[in-house]
Protein backbone atom coordinates (compact mmCIF):
# COMPACT_ATOMS: atom_id res chain seq x y z
CA UNK A 1 0.00 0.00 0.00
CA UNK A 2 1.52 3.34 -0.98
CA UNK A 3 0.45 6.85 -0.13
CA UNK A 4 1.26 10.14 -1.78
CA UNK A 5 4.17 11.99 -0.14
CA UNK A 6 1.81 14.72 1.11
CA UNK A 7 -0.29 12.16 3.00
CA UNK A 8 2.83 10.70 4.65
CA UNK A 9 3.95 14.16 5.64
CA UNK A 10 0.56 14.94 7.21
CA UNK A 11 0.57 11.61 9.03
CA UNK A 12 4.06 12.21 10.43
CA UNK A 13 3.07 15.72 11.49
CA UNK A 14 0.08 14.27 13.37
CA UNK A 15 2.37 11.88 15.26
CA UNK A 16 4.88 14.61 16.12
CA UNK A 17 2.04 16.86 17.26
CA UNK A 18 0.84 14.07 19.56
CA UNK A 19 4.37 13.74 20.93
CA UNK A 20 4.67 17.49 21.41
CA UNK A 21 3.03 17.49 24.82
CA UNK A 22 4.77 16.67 28.12
CA UNK A 23 1.76 14.86 29.59
CA UNK A 24 1.42 12.62 26.54
CA UNK A 25 5.14 11.83 26.66
CA UNK A 26 4.81 10.92 30.35
CA UNK A 27 1.93 8.61 29.46
CA UNK A 28 3.93 6.90 26.71
CA UNK A 29 6.96 6.43 28.92
CA UNK A 30 4.72 4.98 31.62
CA UNK A 31 2.91 2.47 29.38
CA UNK A 32 6.02 1.41 27.48
CA UNK A 33 6.56 -1.48 29.90
CA UNK A 34 3.09 -2.91 29.47
CA UNK A 35 -0.61 -2.31 29.78
CA UNK A 36 -1.76 0.29 32.24
CA UNK A 37 -5.25 1.13 33.42
CA UNK A 38 -6.42 4.73 33.32
CA UNK A 39 -6.66 4.49 37.13
CA UNK A 40 -2.86 3.92 37.15
CA UNK A 41 -2.05 6.58 34.56
CA UNK A 42 -3.95 9.41 36.27
CA UNK A 43 -1.84 9.54 39.46
CA UNK A 44 1.36 8.92 37.52
CA UNK A 45 0.92 12.03 35.37
CA UNK A 46 -0.72 14.02 38.19
CA UNK A 47 -3.62 15.21 36.04
CA UNK A 48 -7.38 14.97 36.37
CA UNK A 49 -9.02 11.91 34.80
CA UNK A 50 -10.87 13.86 32.04
CA UNK A 51 -7.59 15.52 31.02
CA UNK A 52 -5.79 12.16 30.91
CA UNK A 53 -8.65 10.67 28.88
CA UNK A 54 -8.33 13.46 26.32
CA UNK A 55 -4.59 12.83 25.99
CA UNK A 56 -5.18 9.08 25.66
CA UNK A 57 -7.69 9.72 22.88
CA UNK A 58 -5.18 11.83 20.96
CA UNK A 59 -2.54 9.10 21.26
CA UNK A 60 -5.06 6.43 20.26
CA UNK A 61 -6.41 8.42 17.31
CA UNK A 62 -2.97 8.70 15.73
CA UNK A 63 -2.27 5.01 16.22
CA UNK A 64 0.37 5.20 18.94
CA UNK A 65 -1.77 3.64 21.69
CA UNK A 66 -4.38 0.93 21.72
CA UNK A 67 -6.67 -0.26 24.47
CA UNK A 68 -8.64 -3.28 25.48
CA UNK A 69 -11.50 -3.56 27.90
CA UNK A 70 -11.18 -5.70 30.99
CA UNK A 71 -14.56 -5.68 32.69
CA UNK A 72 -15.10 -1.98 33.46
CA UNK A 73 -11.46 -0.93 32.97
CA UNK A 74 -9.60 0.21 29.87
CA UNK A 75 -6.04 -1.01 29.63
CA UNK A 76 -3.77 1.04 27.37
CA UNK A 77 -0.57 -0.07 25.70
CA UNK A 78 1.74 1.02 22.89
CA UNK A 79 0.56 -0.34 19.55
CA UNK A 80 3.97 -1.31 18.23
CA UNK A 81 6.92 -2.05 20.54
CA UNK A 82 9.25 -0.52 17.93
CA UNK A 83 7.67 2.85 18.69
CA UNK A 84 9.71 3.01 21.88
CA UNK A 85 12.76 3.49 19.61
CA UNK A 86 11.31 6.90 18.72
CA UNK A 87 11.10 7.79 22.40
CA UNK A 88 14.61 6.47 23.06
CA UNK A 89 16.12 8.33 20.10
CA UNK A 90 15.70 11.62 21.96
CA UNK A 91 18.51 10.98 24.39
CA UNK A 92 20.80 13.19 26.45
CA UNK A 93 23.34 13.56 23.64
CA UNK A 94 20.75 14.71 21.11
CA UNK A 95 19.20 17.09 23.64
CA UNK A 96 22.60 18.60 24.45
CA UNK A 97 23.46 18.94 20.78
CA UNK A 98 20.17 20.70 20.02
CA UNK A 99 20.62 22.95 23.06
CA UNK A 100 24.09 23.96 21.88
CA UNK A 101 22.72 24.75 18.43
CA UNK A 102 20.00 26.93 19.94
CA UNK A 103 22.49 28.75 22.15
CA UNK A 104 24.73 29.44 19.15
CA UNK A 105 21.75 30.84 17.24
CA UNK A 106 20.74 33.10 20.13
CA UNK A 107 24.19 34.54 20.91
CA UNK A 108 25.51 36.79 18.15
CA UNK A 109 29.05 36.04 17.02
CA UNK A 110 31.42 38.99 17.47
CA UNK A 111 32.55 40.56 14.27
CA UNK A 112 29.40 39.73 12.31
How would you describe the overall organization of this protein?
The protein has a three-stranded antiparallel sheet with strand order 1-3-2. The protein is globular, with a radius of gyration of 18 Å. It has a domain at 5-79: Arc Repressor Mutant, subunit A. Helix content is 60%, strand content 12%. The termini are far apart. The mean pLDDT is 87. It contains six helices and three strands; from the N terminus they run ααβααββαα.
Q: CATH topology of the domain at 5-79, anyone?
A: Arc Repressor Mutant, subunit A
Which strand order spans the largest sheet, edge to edge or round the barrel?
1-3-2
Q: Number of DSSP helices?
A: 6
Radius of gyration: 18 Å
Overall 3D form: globular
CATH architecture tag of the domain at 5-79: Orthogonal Bundle
Q: Could you say which structural class the secondary elements and strand pairing correspond to? A: alpha+beta
How is the biggest beta sheet arranged?
A: 3 strands, antiparallel
Low-confidence stretches: none
Output the CATH class name of the domain at 5-79. Mainly Alpha
- The fraction of residues in strands falls at 5-15%
Amino acid sequence: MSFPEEDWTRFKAKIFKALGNATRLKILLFVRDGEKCVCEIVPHVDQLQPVVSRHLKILKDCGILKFRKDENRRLYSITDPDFTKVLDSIDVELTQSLSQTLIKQMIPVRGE
